[in-house]
Amino acid sequence: MSEQHDLRISGGRVVSTFTGEEFAADVLVRGELISAVLPPGTPAQAREEIDATGMLIVPGFVDAHMHIESAFLTPQEFAAVTLARGTTTVLADPHEIVNVAGRDAMRWMIDAGRETAQTQLWGVPSCVPALEGLENAGAALSAEDIAEMLRWPGVIALGEVMDYRAVVAGDRRMHEITAVAREHGAILDGHCPNLTGAELSAYLATGVDSDHTKNRTEVLLEKARLGMTMMLQEKCLTEDVAAALLALPQLPPLCLVTDDLAADHIVTRGHLDHIARVAVAAGFPPHVVLRALTWTPAQRMRLYDRGVVSPGKRADLVLLRGELAAFDPASVLAGGRVVGRDGAPVDETRPMAVPGLDSRVDVEAQHADGFRWQVDLPDGTHRFRAMRVNPRDTYTEAAEIELPVCGGEVEWEGRAVLVRVRNRYGRDGVVCAPLLGRALGEGAVATTYAHDSHNLLTIGTSRAAMAAAAATVVADGGGVAVVRGAEGETVAARMPLPVGGVLSSRPAGEVAEEAGAVRAALEAWGWDHLNPFMSVSTLTLAVSPALKITDRSLVDVVRREPVGATITG
User: Fold this and answer.
1) Is 296 helix (H, G, I), strand (E, B) or coil?
2) Which of 58, 61, 1 is nearest to 25 (CA)?
3) Which band of pLDDT confidence, cut at 50, 70 and 90, is reported for residue 3?
4) What is the 3-state secondary structure (H, E, C) of 265-288?
């Protein structure tokens, strides 16, 4: 111990992710690595010291499934605010921005991420577009493209294989994509809500071996017993799920993940630290939660240099106040350097990359006449397919509603809420559908942040309000806008996202303020949901059950086929 260390963290208690025990120890750091874990007071020279009296010392948190774009932030700004909450490593799937701008977008995300103290690793999006043939995105990736991108520095995985129906059906394109990922030795990330039985076996047989979606409890257990790494995001963390998993003879490997969290949520409520607290409230023991935040995701990502406080491991460390169950970060170290204190980044002078990505919001001028729902139907009352939403998750049910048609136009105003998707990549494509499950006031929301193709999505109670919201978004070069009133005369909130129509280049604090205002405006309008951003933006996610809408049609997700607006028979 004669060689000098760079840092000594003294007075704290280490939590072992191997045994679940807490024990008094001093942690020493040299360079980016933990150089020793010693009984308190053991002689050892260090240039600096951190007093951790009354604190717990745990490994940095590892997020094995998430999307930086969901925070609406650049990789630098995302790293700053999430590092301060304890997230030192992420595996990011940039399928939002890659669906907009292709390979160039992913290169920019990777390059921007290298400028941060956070370890940002990447998965190549597997579904660009998310559902081939049933929507138009701004880009398309072939198996050959993916094979090349898997060789890029920092890329370790194939992003979530969302088109699970195509995989199960033996679709050639998806078979080629999963095959090249296996040949490359990449991690294959999954997405297959409630897939079970023979279809689940067919999916697993391709090498995809994780799932982060919400499942019925019996399906979650089936997936776990077959060796699928279960990744639990907030909406999955229920008391029923916790009780079922903890009742097993042996607890399977679990990862806690964020998937999609907006900037205002991260700044006000937290990142993985928030998910940890939700897991504890659901009934998971704190030491189980810690392991699901650290060791298990690190192993999943094949990062064998982190996830435990041990000599020789990377000095990604979080000092927690109070009991472990509180998951309250006081200080955060990444690679042996303090990067966060009290939930705020230490370095406030972060370089801002200027992305060269066109926002590509090149749709026609937005007028109320453009929001007429025109159909080839005779005058009279007709039954139309509708989408029904719920207040907790992103599932949408197929429903129906009767609406009058006059002169080839559906007279929906005053009778229903309308959802409209307009292609924004220079192609024809406008599709409308009624929306049920929300009691909304007069107004509208428009956004180019609409999974995964990010076409222009507008929802409203009148044509005029929808036109006003869409015009606001177009003027901002992309983003989200909420308007109130029958004419959309009041812009209640707006969040410009000029980077590909999905990201802001401004500081996280400003983006969080705007995102919070949009969230509040949606809730005041009547859009009650655990995650309003996801509830709105996934109405277009045509791989998520059960009925979705794209720029080409309504889509029956389970049958993976387009369906008409009207119901016959």
Assistant:
1) helix
2) 58
3) confident
4) HHHHCCCHHHHHHHHHHHCCCHHH
CA atoms of 4 and 414, how far apart (whole Å): 75
C-alpha distances (whole Å) from 562 to each of 28, 134, 380, 431 are 60, 7, 25, 12
Q: Output the six-digit token pair for 276.
A: 């940890």
With CA atoms as reference, report the closest residue to 488 among 351, 326, 368, 317: 368
The pLDDT tens digits of the residues spanning 157-207 come to 999 999 999 999 999 999 999 999 999 999 999 999 999 999 999 999 999
Q: Which bin fits 516, alpha (ψ -120 to 50), beta or left (φ > 0)?
A: alpha
- Phi/psi at 353 (5° precision): -70, 145
Q: Which two three-digit tokens encode residue 293? A: 């935040």
Amino acid at site 411: E
Q: Tell me how far apart the alpha carbons of residues 358 and 173 are, in angstroms, rounded to a whole number.
A: 28
Q: Name the DSSP class of 363.
A: P
Residue labelled with tokens 């700044």: 267
CA distances to 73, 86, 339, 355 from 352, rounded to whole Å, are 11, 22, 17, 9
* pLDDT at position 1 over 50: no
481 HSE (CA, 13 A, CB side)? 25
The predicted model scores a pTM of 0.94
Element spanning 36, H or E: strand 33-38
Q: Report how far residue 54's alpha carbon sits from residue 320's, in angstroms, rounded to the nearest whole number.
A: 9
CA–CA distances in Å: residue 533 to residues 119, 389, 394, 448:
26, 13, 10, 12
Among 59, 8, 2, which Cα is nearest to 320's?
59
> Are the C-beta atoms of 396 and 546 separated by less than 8 Å?
yes
Q: At what angle do helices 217-225 and 239-246 cross, to 10 degrees?
A: 30
Number of other residues whose CB lies within 10 A of the CB of residue 493: 22
% helix, strand, coil for the chain, step of 5: 30, 30, 45
**For every residue of 446-478, which 3-state class applies, written as one string?**
EECCCCCCCCEEEEECCHHHHHHHHHHHHHCCC
Amino acid at residue number 189:
D
- Tell me whether residue 42 is exposed, middle or buried, using C-beta atoms within 10 angstroms of its C-beta: 0 to 12, 13 to 18, 19 or more: middle
pLDDT value, residue 352: 54
Strand-pairing partners, residue 122, are 92, 155
CB count in 10 Å sphere of residue 6:
17
Q: Which residues contact 357 (CB under 8 A, 6 or more apart)?
A: 97, 100, 101, 104, 105, 108, 499, 500
